[in-house]
Amino acid sequence: MSLIFHMVFTILYSILEIFTGIIGVYQIIMSLFGIWHRREKIVHSANKSFAVIVPAHNEEVVVGPLIDSLVTQKYPKHLYDVHVIADHCTDHTEQVAARHGAMVHVRENQEQRGKGFAIEWMLDRLWETGKHYDAVVMFDADNLVAPDFLARMNDKLSEGHKVVQGYLGVKNAFDTWVSVSMGISYWFSNRMWQNARENLNLSSSLGGTGLCIDMDLLHEMGWGATGLTEDLEFGVRCVERGIIPVWAHDAKVYDEKPTSLLPSMRQRLRWMQGHFHCARKHMFPLIGSGIKERNFVKLDAGIYLFQPMRFLILFLTSLMMLLQLSVPQSTMASHLTNLLPTQFWVAVNIFLYLQMPLALLLERVNWRAYFGLILLPFFLWTWGPVVFQAYFTKANRKWAHTVHKRSIHLDQIHGR
Known about the structure:
The chain has 15 helices and eight strands. The protein is α/β, with parallel strands linked by helices. The chain has a domain of 209 residues: Spore Coat Polysaccharide Biosynthesis Protein SpsA, Chain A, CATH 3.90.550. Helix 3 links the parallel strand 2 and strand 3. The longest helix is centred in the middle third of the chain and has 33 residues. The chain is globular, with a radius of gyration of 22 Å. The relative contact order is 0.14.
């Protein structure tokens, strides 16, 4: 019996080792294409009209600065409207949003709660009014938006793109070690993941905010994304239809991140629960279509769904390296770690971790971020328990609101 168990364990371990090695090498190769980026010039005159949608639940502290950054866009005022959804608010979100110049829509629906449902409700209201917009742009209430954001979205739409994801920055990166770790994660993701795939003409991963969608496409497809990761759902459906979401590296949005570990882990748990739910439905069809059609865009999108978060790669490769370094080669169990040599895992980990400071260098991030690299390995390891818990609770569909407590303005970010 023990021999059978040992054989089964060895086979499973070998499969995990091979898979982890392939994914690690795959990410290293892909990230090399993210090194190059030249700031794009705005070449098209303003001609697209936008409905800017902001779902907000009890966001009186942060929604004002966001609207200020939207109403002062370097874009003709008659070509966009700011619509704030006061979704089940019990504070002064409605009054603050109206005072700062937004059109406010009050929503009360106790059965359908969450950002995805709020967006779907808002889109129905816009279509009922009969007012024409060329595209919809979505932001979270805690965001701040660069002055040229809409102009850059106008450029992408004028080039014929239907779905565009803007750059996701962090507005409070230097508050704590947790927020700076999230900041490093996003700087890396923007440069070595999103920008790399843009350079390869692959699909961008939609981030739920800073997202621009052609209105005719929304009419055709419907929103239909009401899960915990509504952005991921919609992006996957686009790829399945042959529509490639593109990345706009210079169209920047700044998001607020939790400053302590437990709220950060709760937020990431929600992301991973939604990711697993979406993967269960779309992963195998995407991978199958990608292989059958020889379509690398679909194959890469399927691979993204297979590994719930890119930093899970770091967790698994680090685990493999520690196992190999900790198991004495003279023991009976050492043969479990001989499928791929220790040198391989050390090299993979070195290359993956070195991408972090490289991304900071390429993104010209404030020098204080480099001190965050000291504690970053610990933060990355916290993805492990988050992902495993998310897998066993992936049926959860309940939206958990992230509380935002700081009012930061755009000039404060630029002054840092």
